């Protein structure tokens, strides 16, 4: 290899290694670290992230990138080398706009915010978190100022998670799907409600954990390259395809949330584990965007995990684990129960028909906060008002409302839109898979998920960050992100369940 290109590759490998180290520290902080370690961990994370940022944004890297561009082989615009160079250059351009001192300050602030959020959520006291959230949004406004040429200030944040996506595009998608989802919810509300009491019996947490492990294993989760633990909010943390960690949680009021969280996070993990090893320690390692990532988790959790064919295979095994609770239940009763539509307070426990309304609420609030139109202390009241308007329910306390998600404490502002975008992509992929595998449902009835995983590996996972998100979706489905297949899926599914 050309000595200059080898220097560039070596520096990127070093930066990726530092980011992996930060990922493990962050995972431990949220899973095992004692509360007393908060301050020291924040400083350690800040040091590593600052070092990674400084090493990547040095003048040397800029010079090496210019050399690489000048000596690139223009004959193959789609080669691996061209893709690695393009993504590295794009990352470098964004990173050099952000001072290392800001990266360090944000790391310290979000570490403190995470611990404040945990305490505030446990005590349902927003005031404990409010000063930290104010700091996070102050820093996010400062971050936006590093990118003055964007069409909308929110574009700078959205692009971090969904490269190339504009705020105007997200708002147009939301405006298109909201009326039909609201109409569907209203139509369902006029029908007799599904009785789902069988889901709220006193299920054993260890038994549900074991069943979740059984399901994740059937999906194809590689336990030699991954593990599962518990955390207040389920998440996935990756340090490369060889070390992908997921978490779940148990709620005695919603015991099956343990299973849905395992399925959801396993979907994220399968994507990370499927990244081609050629991209290890390069800019192409990992997933191309959060919406594509979310399409994987929502596909496995909902399109697979809440489908009738899936439970035709797994329901007898679940009954054997819980004979007292489910021994007398029918498959149809269980299937209808897990797909009950009922406006709920908690996003991660929301049904498919109402889920996107939770996301829209949060995105609209982020945009208002970023523009200074809403003060931090006004958020709990605004949240309750929006929940009443969108879903017709009001949280009893802040833990059920504004404090339910950890994302703002993590500094993930601009992230939430990707949940809905991922929902849309998931159905596009689901339909594309069925077009090449007409026996899709029969495979699930036999508990065989290997053809689906193999197809996702080939079409999505192996590419890592090689393609821009919309380009990747278009390659696989023939179009960019399109709400229509998702809306048709919802209407078809719930028409059958509720007799609409």
Q: Overview of this structure, please?
A:
By secondary structure, this protein is mainly alpha-helical. The chain folds into 2 domains: 3-128; 167-498, Neurolysin, domain 3. A 3-stranded mixed sheet has the order 1-3-2, sandwiched between helices. Helix 15 (352-370) packs antiparallel against helix 17 (417-436). The longest helix has 29 residues, at 3-31. It has helices at 3-31, 38-56, 59-70, 80-95, 100-123, 130-145, 153-161, 167-189, 205-219, 257-273, 290-304, 308-321, 323-326, 331-338, 352-370, 379-391, 417-436, 440-445, 450-459, 469-477, 483-498; strands at residues 226-230, 236-238, 244-248.
Summary, kept brief:
63% of the residues lie in helices and 3% in strands.
Blueprint of the fold:
Blueprint: H1 3-31, H2 38-56, H3 59-70, H4 80-95, H5 100-123, H6 130-145, H7 153-161, H8 167-189, H9 205-219, E1 226-230, E2 236-238, E3 244-248, H10 257-273, H11 290-304, H12 308-321, H13 323-326, H14 331-338, H15 352-370, H16 379-391, H17 417-436, H18 440-445, H19 450-459, H20 469-477, H21 483-498
Parallel strand pairs: 1-3
Antiparallel strand pairs: 2-3
Helix pairs in contact: 1-2, 1-3, 2-5, 3-4, 5-6, 6-7, 8-15, 8-21, 9-10, 10-11, 11-17, 12-14, 15-16, 15-17, 17-21
Listing every helix as H and every strand as E from the N terminus to the C terminus, the arrangement reads HHHHHHHHHEEEHHHHHHHHHHHH
- What structural class do helix, strand and pairing data support? mainly alpha
Strand order of the largest sheet: 1-3-2
Span between termini: 64 Å
Low-pLDDT residue intervals, each spanning 5 or more residues = none
Q: What is the name of the CATH topology of the largest domain?
A: Neurolysin, domain 3
Shape: globular
Give the C-level CATH assignment of the largest domain. Mainly Alpha
Tally of extended strands? 3
């Amino acid at each position: 290899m050309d000595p200059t290109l080898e220097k560039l590759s070596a520096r990127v490998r070093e930066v990726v290694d530092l980011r992996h180290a930060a990922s493990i520290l962050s995972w431990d902080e949220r899973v095992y670290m004692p509360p007393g370690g908060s301050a020291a961990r924040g400083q350690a994370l800040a040091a590593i992230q600052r070092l990674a940022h400084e090493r990547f944004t040095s003048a040397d890297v800029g010079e090496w990138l210019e050399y690489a561009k000048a000596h690139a082989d223009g004959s193959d615009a789609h080669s691996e080398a061209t893709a690695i160079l393009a993504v590295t250059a794009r990352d470098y351009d964004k990173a050099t706009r952000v001072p290392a001192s800001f990266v360090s300050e944000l790391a310290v602030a979000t570490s403190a915010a995470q611990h404040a959020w945990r305490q505030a959520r446990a005590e349902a006291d927003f005031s404990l978190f409010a000063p930290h959230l104010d700091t996070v949004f102050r820093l996010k406004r400062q971050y936006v100022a590093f990118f003055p040429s964007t069409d909308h200030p929110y574009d700078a944040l959205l692009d971090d998670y969904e490269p190339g996506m504009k705020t105007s595009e997200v708002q147009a998608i939301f405006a298109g799907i909201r009326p039909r989802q609201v109409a569907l919810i209203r139509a369902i509300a006029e029908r007799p409600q599904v009785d789902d009491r069988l889901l709220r019996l006193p299920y054993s947490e260890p038994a549900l954990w074991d069943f979740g492990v059984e399901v994740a294993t059937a999906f194809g989760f590689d336990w030699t390259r991954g593990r599962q633990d518990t955390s207040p909010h389920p998440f996935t943390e990756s340090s490369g395809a060889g070390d992908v960690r997921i978490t779940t949680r148990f709620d005695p009021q919603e015991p099956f949330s343990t299973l849905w969280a395992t399925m959801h996070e396993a979907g994220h993990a399968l994507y990370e584990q499927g990244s081609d090893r050629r991209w290890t320690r390069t800019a192409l390692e990992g997933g191309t965007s959060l919406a594509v990532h979310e399409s994987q988790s929502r596909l496995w959790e909902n399109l697979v995990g809440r489908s009738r064919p899936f439970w035709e295979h797994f329901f007898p095994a679940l009954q054997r684990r819980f004979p007292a609770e489910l021994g007398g239940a029918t498959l149809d009763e269980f299937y209808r129960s897990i797909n009950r539509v009922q406006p709920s307070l908690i996003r991660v426990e929301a049904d498919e028909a109402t889920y996107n309304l939770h996301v829209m609420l949060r995105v609209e609030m982020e945009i208002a906060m970023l523009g200074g139109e809403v003060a931090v202390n006004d958020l709990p009241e605004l949240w309750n008002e929006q929940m009443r308007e969108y879903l017709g329910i009001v949280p009893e306390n802040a833990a059920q409302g504004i404090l339910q998600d950890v994302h703002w404490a993590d500094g993930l502002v601009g992230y939430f839109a990707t949940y809905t975008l991922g929902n849309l992509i998931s159905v596009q992929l689901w339909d594309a898979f069925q077009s090449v595998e007409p026996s899709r449902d029969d495979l699930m009835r036999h508990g065989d998920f290997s053809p689906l995983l193999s197809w996702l590996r080939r079409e999505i996972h192996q590419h890592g960050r090689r393609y821009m998100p919309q380009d990747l979706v278009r390659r696989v489905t023939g179009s960019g992100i399109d709400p229509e297949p998702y809306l048709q899926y919802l209407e078809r599914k719930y028409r059958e369940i509720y007799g609409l």
